[in-house]
Amino acid sequence: MRILHTSDWHVGATLKGQSRMVEQTAVFGEMVELARAEQPDLVIVAGDLFDTAAPSAAAQKLLVRTLSALRSCGADVIAVAGNHDHGGAIDALRGWADAAGINLRGKIGGAGDHLVTGRTRDGVDWKCAALPFVSQRYAVRATELFDLTAAETGQSYADHLRRLIAVLSASFDASAVNLITGHLTVVGGKIGGGEREAHTVADYAVPATIFPAATHYVALGHLHRHQRITGGCPIRYSGAPLAVDFGEESYTPGVVLVDVTPDTPARARHVPLTSATPLRTLRGSLEELREAEVDDHEWLRVYIREKPRAGLREEAQELFPQAISIHIDPAMTDRAAVPRASRAGRTPRQLFADYLAENNHDDPAVTELFDRLYDKVSTVGPDAGADA
Questions:
Q1: Adjacent-strand bridge partners of 220
Q2: Coil, strand or helix: which one is 140?
Q3: How many angstroms separate the CA atoms of 233 and 177, rounded?
Q4: How far apart are the C-alpha atoms of 320 and 272, rounded to whole Å?
Q5: Are 70 and 77 within 8 A, CB to CB?
Q6: Residue 333: pLDDT band by 50, 70, 90 thresholds?
């Protein structure tokens, strides 16, 4: 059978306040065209369907349209909620999803609800343990659904996840392709720029050994970089279909196509998706930046390697109209180099000069502007005391 593995769609995401909906529509259209060409038997979306727990109507429409289009390619579809999603809201879509032949799982329910089974066009049986994101707070409550004993309630998050997966995979056997999908952090995975840090720290990391050796393929979401995890069975993060922030600009967004049978190992290949606008960071002085070759079809982040001065940002914005983030390079504003002066007995002009010195901001134009403004607000005019 053939599987298209994708994750971390983050539908409705913005970048420094800029909407990504046009890009996402193009990327998902490219994904659907790939599915039509490759004819997968199963599409797995491993969490973070939306960027926020309260997505806009436009984001919901795009998600429904994309899942429906993938289903119309002839593939079964499984999608689980991630930590960015509202599990209850995802489950609220299950009436539509069930009617459309799409398997949505938002929150942990009974064990039987999370083992999805099917058969390919060629008669190959498959089983997939579909595990949505489980928060640390909910992990014990989730395992209570699987007859957790009182002595086991104090065990770690990894122990609870191990037990959940063990129950869901108990029926795995050699007669079918055995699959697991989940939205979680596995030890050894490389974290990028767009994952929510609270859910990638050590307390949320689980070892690869929680996945049984009988598993043919583990389709993971949560880490946005495409990567393979070493374990007793094939384990992969598909990576996100587009970079969600500048911390991911070096990634190659895409999906993973997997070919596997009950008797042969999974063979996976990463297929890049190129419809999204590239993200790029530029660094240098204004003179160096003037020499940079940029494409109008890029999201730019610019770090200027000059000391702060009046009008510097405006000059950079004029140079790069498409830049959505312009900063002074942190190396140029090292506050540790100048000791903080005492405020006692110092005039406003002296205090402002101290502030400029602390920030390595030596610009006479700024000092002159402060003097003019200070004189204006502190000088008593001829009619100032008329109403006193």
A1: 182, 237
A2: helix
A3: 13
A4: 28
A5: yes
A6: low
Distance (Å, whole) CA 40 – CA 28: 16
What letter would DSSP give residue 314?
H
Kindly write down the DSSP assignment for every residue of 47-79, as one continuous string.
Answer: S--BSSSS--HHHHHHHHHHHHHHHHTT-EEEE
Q: What angle do CA 167, 263, 72 make, to 5 degrees?
A: 75
Mean pLDDT of the chain: 85
Residue 84 exposure: Cα atoms within 13 Å on the Cβ side: 22
The full set of domain ranges for the chain reads 2-272, 279-378
Into which CATH architecture does domain 2-272 fall? 4-Layer Sandwich (3.60)
Outline where 83-236 has alpha helix (H): 87-92, 94-100, 136-144, 157-168
Whole-prediction pTM value?
A: 0.80
Q: Contact at 8 Å (CB) between 115 and 78?
A: no
**What is the identity of the amino acid at 364?**
P
pLDDT band of 202, cuts 50, 70, 90: low
Q: Quick check: 354 and 341 in contact, CB under 8 A?
A: yes
In whole angstroms, what is the distance from residue 143 CA to residue 126 CA? 25
Indicate the DSSP class of residue 209. Answer: G
Altogether, the residues listed in the chain come to a count of 388
Residue whose entry in the numeric block shows the structure tokens 């490389």: 190
- Pick the closest to residue 13 from 294, 192, 241 (CA basis): 241
Distance CA 32, CA 63 (A): 12
DSSP 3-state of 106: coil
Task: Report the half-sphere exposure of 351 (CA within 13 A, side-chain side).
Answer: 8
